[in-house]
Amino acid sequence: MKMITNDELDHIFLMISRNVKYYRIHNNSKYADKFGRISQDRLAELCNVSQSLIANIESEKVKQTFSITVIAAVSKVLNIPFEEFFKEHSYTKQKSH
Predict the structure, then answer these.
(1) Which tens digits make up the pLDDT trace of 61-72?
(2) Where are the alpha helices (DSSP H) in the chain?
């Protein structure tokens, strides 16, 4: 069995990071404000995690580990299908700094 490379893992983290941030600020769930956004604080509260965990997941500079349970909670709160966080979208293809 071939192990996942560090580059492949970095790419997965980057995709999830960008997707969580995108869907948090482009959202139409019942928790979104009138502008279609949910703050990191509110998302963290609804997912029963710390705001710093959400911030670290969204950061492209921090390699924050997290459980599938956290992404499942984020998915449910944001009303976005779970698998969308693992897909490459046009906004996830930007080059990292």
Answers:
(1) 888 889 999 999
(2) 6-25, 40-47, 51-58, 68-78
